[in-house]
Design brief:
Helix content is 54%, strand content 7%. β1 and β2 form a beta hairpin. It has a domain of 140 residues: hpI Integrase, Chain A. It is elongated and about 85 Å long. It has ten helices and five strands; from the N terminus they run αααβββββααααααα. The strands form two sheets. The protein has a three-stranded antiparallel β-sheet with strand order 1-2-5. A two-stranded antiparallel ribbon has the order 3-4. The model has no long low-confidence stretch (mean pLDDT 89). The chain is mainly alpha-helical.
Length: 215
C-alpha cells in the first residue's frame, strides 16, 4: 500500500488523496465519493460518513443513505490522513480557480476536475493506472484497500467492536466471521499479555519480599 500511495503522490495523481483516504479509513468507495467538505471536521480530525454516491449518478450527484444505523458514523483521521486531505484540498482549489465560473461546485471532496461527481467506473480505471505506476499487480481490486485497512487493524490487536464500528459493518459478529483469519492470534496475544503481567507482578513481589527486613 505504501508503494501505491508514494507513487501516486510522486506522479501528482489528482486522486492520490482518495487512495490515501481509502487506505486510512477503510471506507467504501461510494462512501468517500459521497463525502462533502461539510462532512470534514478539521478540529476533530474526523469525517462523518452519512451517505454514498450512487454509481454513475451523472453530472449531478445522487446519493444513497446507509442501509443500517451503523453505516452512518464518525471516522477519526490520523495525522497522515489529514495531511493527504489537505494536499488534496489544495489541488482541488487550484482546479476551481482554473475553471472559474465553469466549475460545478457540489461541495464534494472527491470530484472531477470541473467539480462533478466521479463515476465509479472511472475511479476504478484510475486505480488500475495507479497500480501500474506503482508496479503492483493489476489483479488488486479497489475494494481490496478496504480489506487491507481492516486486516491491518485486526492484526494490530485493536478492539474488534471499535474496528467494526469504524468500517460500518452491520454487526460485530459480521466482522468476527468475515475477518476470523486476521483475528486468530487474538486469544494467544491475550494469554501472552496476561502471563507477562502476572510474571512481572510475581517478580516484583519477590523482590519486595527479598528486600523486606527479616525478624
Amino acid at each position: 500500500m505504501a508503494r501505491l500511495l508514494d507513487a501516486a503522490e510522486a506522479a501528482g495523481d489528482r486522486l492520490a488523496g482518495l487512495w490515501a483516504m481509502l487506505a486510512h479509513t477503510g471506507a467504501r468507495v461510494g462512501e468517500l465519493l459521497g463525502l462533502g467538505w461539510d462532512d470534514v471536521s478539521w478540529d476533530r480530525t474526523a469525517i462523518t460518513i452519512r451517505r454514498s454516491l450512487e454509481p454513475e449518478s451523472g453530472p449531478e450527484p445522487s446519493f444513497d443513505t446507509p442501509k443500517t444505523a451503523r453505516g452512518r458514523r464518525v471516522v477519526t483521521l490520523g495525522a497522515d490522513a489529514i495531511d493527504a486531505l489537505r494536499r488534496h484540498r489544495a489541488r482541488q482549489n487550484a482546479e476551481r480557480l482554473r475553471r472559474g465560473e465553469a466549475y460545478c461546485d457540489f461541495g464534494l471532496v472527491f470530484a472531477t476536475s470541473n467539480g462533478t461527481p466521479l463515476g465509479e467506473r472511472n475511479v476504478i480505471r484510475a486505480f488500475k493506472a495507479a497500480l501500474k505506476r506503482a508496479e503492483l499487480r493489476d489483479t488488486i481490486r479497489i475494494h481490496d484497500v478496504r480489506h487491507y485497512h481492516i486486516t491491518t487493524a485486526a492484526h494490530s490487536g485493536v478492539s474488534v467492536k471499535a474496528l467494526s464500528t469504524r468500517v460500518g459493518h452491520a454487526s460485530v459478529a459480521f466482522t468476527l466471521d468475515r475477518y476470523a483469519h486476521a483475528l486468530e492470534g487474538g486469544d494467544r496475544d491475550v494469554a501472552d499479555a496476561v502471563e507477562l503481567a502476572i510474571r512481572t507482578a510475581r517478580e516484583q513481589t519477590g523482590r519486595l519480599r527479598a528486600a523486606a527486613p527479616q525478624g
